[in-house]
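Ticket #4471: structure export looks truncated?
Reporter: QA, pipeline team
Priority: medium

Steps to reproduce: submit the single chain below to the structure queue and open the exported record.
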Amino acid sequence: MPEILITLGDPAGIGPEVIDAALASGRLPAGFDFRVIGDRSAGVAGKPTRDSAKAALDALEESARLLRETDAAAVVTGPVSKEGLQSVGFPFPGQTEFFANAFDLVDYGMLLTGPTLTVGLATIHNALAEVPRLLTVESIFSIGKLTADFLTKTGVAAPRIAVCGLNPHAGENGAFGNEEKTVIAPAVAALNETGLAAFTGPHVPDAIFRDAALGKYDAVLAMYHDQGLIPLKLLDFDEAVNVTLGLPKPRTSPDHGTAFSIAGKSQANSASMIAAIRLACELAG
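Actual output as written to the record:
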């Protein structure tokens, strides 16, 4: 049977308990083997340390090795502390960039999906002040193609993808910025030439997510992290899944953090972990 790897995350966080709850839920697909990677003994619930961060890093590195060197079909990553990882030498902004580096990828992206919204991010873990410089026709084209491919793999026959503007009112014809005219609109035009999906935009960012939530679009391309994740987490927090696009094998994760403050108190919700494992199985299948 196909093997789905699951990293424990930081063992001082809620990763161990939401993974246990997911595996015992009866809501995971049949026909898969699930292999949990990580050292539970390296952490005490609610008390993160360098040892628990190192255990999280070790699990990540082992999962990447197994994805590269074995027939493992996908990986689901438990929540980690970026601060903790960086304290033990982790050089990446997040797990997305770690896996992209592990597979020597240049063309990759982050997408989050839930019952209501699916959002691709043109820039990821970057300071807001850097976003206008980082946005290029090429970067938007890349996330657009990757998002269209994801939608096709999950059964959307003719994807409809809305592309956000960067500025208030999508620039108001240059009154609030020119990125819509100089970067985003050319990227939308280039994407439509691929025939992969119907791309529209640049749309006014403060309105387009409502249209998507009402079912008028299958996904939205956001220009920066919080532009896309604020509406997604508002609507889909408990069941949203983070997906790394562009990898040769699927990587998903629950869309929540370590929640050290509630770890070990039987308060953690396993719905996002269940959704992440189910999506990994779907993509692997």
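Status: closed, not a bug. The export was complete when the record was re-opened. Leaving a note from the reviewer for reference: The first strand starts at residue 3 and ends at 7.
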